[in-house]
Amino acid sequence: MLNSFALTFVALFVALDILGTLPLYIGMTHHLEPRVRNRVLNTSLLVALVVAIIFLFIGEAIFRAIGITVYDFKIGGGLVLLLISLADLVGQHEARERASGSSGIVPLAVPLITGPGVLTTLILQVRAAGLITTVSALLVNFLFAWVVLRHSGWIVRMIGKDGATVFSKIAALLLTAIAVAMIRSGIFEAIQAAGL
């Protein structure tokens, strides 16, 4: 049981990649007041967790019912990330303000935190380790994610305003690369699944 939990935890830890998300989170939220940044963090993590848990129970059924696959989800999620990152790179004000309102859950909650990789991993781990083990590992991973992202403020204080701006542009470039990788992966996996 413990070994099964450890394997599931590691699989979800890799899929969530919260350490990789940290620079993106800082880039999107460094201009916010600490109180607002914490609200965005809490809302984003809560939404991401709820999406993940709902998907555990009904995700596959929903996908089948509307005729889409995880590959479609990867491509669509990648396109959303690509549009947001490009808007941020060219300095559109809307992109910089995106995290300050209710839309802060996009792209933080979905698809950055709970994206196609996490959803696919959840499906596989439920089949391999069972529902209780998978949900437990997911909750521990989200607790770790909250601790890491909650303490990102001191990094912003260390690098200063100019450093945070540079960090934001680097994060937007990384986000663009992640988006392209998601789209490419979704296309290739769809082609493989079709047997072409």
Structure description:
The chain contains nine helices and no strands. It has 196 residues and is mostly helical. The chain has one domain (2-193). Helix 4 (70-89) packs across helix 9 (153-193). The longest helix has 41 residues, at 153-193. The N and C termini lie far apart (40 Å).
Count the helices. How many? 9
Look at the helices and sheets and give the structural class.
mainly alpha
**Helical content class:** over 70%
Taking the alpha carbons of the first and last residues, their distance comes to 40 Å
Low-confidence spans: pLDDT under 50, at least 5 residues? Answer: none
Q: Can you tell me the overall shape?
A: globular
Main sheet?
none
Q: What is the total domain count?
A: 1
Could you tell me the strand content as a percent range? Answer: under 5%
List the helices and strands in order.
HHHHHHHHH
Gyration radius, to the nearest Å? 17 Å
Q: Compute the average pLDDT.
A: 84
Question: Oligomerization state of this entry?
Answer: single chain
Secondary structure tally: strands: 0
What topology does this entry show?
Elements: H1 2-16, H2 18-29, H3 34-66, H4 70-89, H5 93-97, H6 105-113, H7 116-129, H8 131-150, H9 153-193
